[in-house]
What does this fold into?
Amino acid sequence: MRVVPGPANPALSKTLATALGTAPVRTETRRFPDGEIYARVLEPLAGDVVVVQSTPSNDDLLALLLLLDAARAHGAEHLVAVVPYYGYARQDRRFQPGEALSSDVVARAIDLYADAIVVVDPHKEAILDRFPGSAVACTAVPELAASLAADEVDLVLAPDAGARERAEAAAKAMGADVDHLEKKRIDAHTVEIAPKKMDAKGRTVAILDDMISTGGTMARATETLLKAGAKAVHCAATHGLFAAGAEARLAAAGVASVRVADTVPGPNATVSAAAAVQRGLGDVLHTVRAPQK
Ligand code: R5P
It folds into this structure.
């Protein structure tokens, strides 16, 4: 299997390629003077090929599509899009009449070029149903839990009921208790965490979410827990987008640590998602190798 590294994930691609016993395929991505993106795969390909590229920005999404096209044209027989962080996943419904269904639009665009897609901890697994081809979700929660265990966390909290399943998996792996908070989103930058009866006093707590964007969710949850007497609050998520001001917001709230997986590179991306991606590839490859009807 060959690994084509997208510009958004050089480190993760390298770790994955090494784990698969290969070296990343050499590529060239750059911009034309007018800002358009140029992508080229520099080695001939054959057989199973994965393109690894998160899509936190519109340019990243376009780079993914271009690299998929380039990989296919250069010999890839079975082509898997590994999208460690799948952007536009949160607009998964038409919340108001007339809105674009963004997660669906992105899914259909990727499906035009790839035989299958692997996504790490998508915001909701239901978005994968939008792929006409094979689509598999994998999770970096075991690796995040292993990292949190070093901080002797004894209570894992999800910021809302929707994130509870991930928190339960982490708590089980760590032998910790689990609960969830009640979150209400006011706008893109503001959330409220409802006070909830729970015994956080004296405990070392981890809040586990799928992503940190503005940091509002983690910051409010941390403040609530510290007010309730928690000894320390560690924040962990699969995807660290860290919109402007997020890190300062978290520090001001008093978090003890912040850790995310390397689906989106950054200073807090200390947990590798490579093992999760390998598990996902294991689940999907047989489907793309099956003869097409
Ligand atoms: C929302 O449903 C997600 O699971 C995250 O809780 C949210 O996207 C985090 O965003 P922020 O860091 O802006 O609060």
